[in-house]
Backbone:
């Protein structure tokens, strides 16, 4: 998958490809490149300043090849002073270098390892790889003509041992790539059956336990909510259960629960036509869960992790579920359907009950759940709702560590009564106001009092336009935060175990 990453100890001036030259204030070549001849360094610094690269993060420019270096071109990238820079700066700089190199027609990037205060070389290398893999992502499977040059190879030049960092950066980058690929797949290709088939293949490949519940098995379980959401589509629903069990010590047991609506038309409560095509991405939460589970065997964290993905297609049809229907959920609670477009919380209700029954100490669900959350926070970040402060704080820490935006939203008790129904235990919507909060309160009813985090990724799961870390379309938001969270939860702040 993705790009090839190598380490090299060869001198920077002898490498071909697009060679990155870090520029520090005030427009000087980074000090660690002292092995380059003084006159060459002076020339590069002058050229960088001439095109506006004075050393700040966010600045970058292509410089022509020069005497004394084998590079096809140089990419001057602002990296801030070596005593102030952060991993986030390095990740951004890596992404910028990809953008400029690709635009110039380059396919191969070369980075000298840079220093970040208080951070070891391997971790800096990890972030370089991560930024490069994320920024060079394309979804081109269905394009007859490739849309321009792509970075295919990254070489990181380092004296020190950075292999674990490279490996880890690839792992994280590949996990995000995997989630993006699934999310970008159209509804005609990726239906619940195909999604569960992919989960099965992944489980065999990396070594996870896997069980798949089809319609008959869901009926046996009594997962009435998942069945109802899926009943309007000829493509039947599935529940996927993956388990990662560590080899040695187990420091915790938790479940990641994902919403995977492979296409959300709204059902009989049909959505407006405009923008409906984006609802092929309504399985981004489920994709994130699969991506994290897929990475776990290589991460070797001392946690037992259950991945529970509820997959269905929400379509109107002669057999579709209707507003007014009363469903019996897996938990035993009944739900009156007000809107068939509030289908995500129905799927998650059953999936959460399933997760609770695995005996986990913490539930985390991730879902493109409400337009309201996207209205509140925009496309930049997700909302997190929590019944457990420690877990929430750790999740916010994890998000900050990896440079994803996650913001806390409240579970206000007074709103709970809006979910009361005349004829059932609950109704599935409570009007326009505070819809993200009401959805979260609805989910909480199915957590049986367990510590629980709910991530509403309706905003950031999908990018309207390309950005620094990827093109328009699926972003894979949440994957890196969840991986980091699991490390923190396991007490492995350093991250890498192997
Ligand atoms: N999948 C949507 C939420 C969504 C909207 C995700 C926009 C990404 C972008 C969800 O199933 C939905 O339709 N939610 C409704 C809930 C409403 C009926 C209470 C919504 O947000 O409008
Ligand atoms: Mn919907
Ligand atoms: Zn939906």
Residues:
């Amino acid at each position: 998958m993705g790009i090839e990453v190598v380490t090299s100890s060869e001198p920077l001036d002898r490498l071909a490809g697009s060679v990155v030259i870090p520029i520090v204030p005030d427009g000087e070549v980074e000090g660690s490149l002292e092995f380059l001849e003084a006159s060459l360094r002076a020339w590069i610094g002058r050229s960088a300043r001439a095109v506006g690269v004075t050393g700040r993060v966010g600045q970058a420019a292509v410089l022509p090849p020069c005497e004394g270096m084998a590079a096809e071109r140089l990419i001057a990238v602002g990296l801030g002073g070596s005593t102030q820079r952060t991993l986030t700066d390095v990740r951004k700089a890596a992404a910028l270098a990809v953008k400029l190199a690709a635009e110039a027609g380059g396919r191969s990037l070369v980075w000298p390892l840079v220093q970040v205060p208080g951070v070891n070389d391997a971790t800096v290398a990890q972030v370089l790889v991560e930024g490069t893999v994320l920024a060079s992502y394309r979804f081109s499977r269905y394009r007859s003509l490739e849309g321009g040059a792509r970075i295919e190879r990254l070489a990181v030049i380092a004296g020190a041992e950075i292999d674990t960092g490279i490996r880890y950066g690839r792992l994280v980058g590949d996990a995000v790539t995997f989630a993006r690929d699934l999310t970008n797949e159209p509804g005609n290709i990726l239906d619940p059956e195909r999604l569960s088939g992919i989960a099965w293949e992944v489980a065999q490949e990396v070594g996870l336990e896997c069980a798949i519940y089809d319609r008959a098995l869901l009926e046996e379980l009594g997962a009435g909510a998942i069945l109802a959401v899926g009943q309007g589509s000829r493509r039947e629903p599935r529940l996927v259960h993956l388990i990662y069990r560590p080899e040695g010590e187990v420091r915790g047991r938790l479940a990641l629960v994902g919403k995977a609506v492979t296409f959300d038309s709204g059902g009989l409560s049909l959505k407006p036509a405009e923008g409906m095509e984006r609802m092929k991405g309504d399985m981004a939460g489920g994709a994130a869960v699969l991506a994290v589970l897929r990475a776990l065997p290589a991460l070797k964290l001392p946690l037992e992790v259950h991945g529970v993905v509820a997959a269905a297609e929400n379509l109107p049809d002669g057999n579709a579920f209707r507003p007014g229907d009363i469903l019996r959920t897996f938990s035993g609670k009944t739900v009156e359907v007000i809107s068939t477009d509030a289908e995500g919380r129905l799927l998650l209700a059953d999936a959460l009950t399933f997760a609770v029954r695995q005996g986990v100490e913490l539930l985390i669900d991730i879902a493109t759940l409400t337009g309201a959350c996207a209205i509140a926070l925009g496309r930049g970040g997700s909302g997190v709702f929590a019944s457990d402060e420690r877990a929430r704080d750790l999740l916010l820490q994890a998000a900050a560590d990896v440079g994803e935006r996650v913001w806390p939203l409240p579970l206000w008790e007074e709103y709970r009564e809006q979910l009361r129904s005349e004829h059932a235990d609950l109704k599935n919507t409570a009007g326009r106001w505070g819809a993200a909060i009401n959805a979260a309160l609805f989910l909480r009813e199915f957590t049986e009092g367990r510590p629980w985090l709910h991530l509403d990724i309706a905003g950031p799961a999908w990018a309207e336009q390309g950005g620094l870390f990827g093109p328009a379309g699926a972003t894979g938001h949440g994957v890196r935060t969840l991986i980091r969270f699991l490390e923190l939860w396991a007490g492995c702040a350093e991250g890498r175990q192997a």
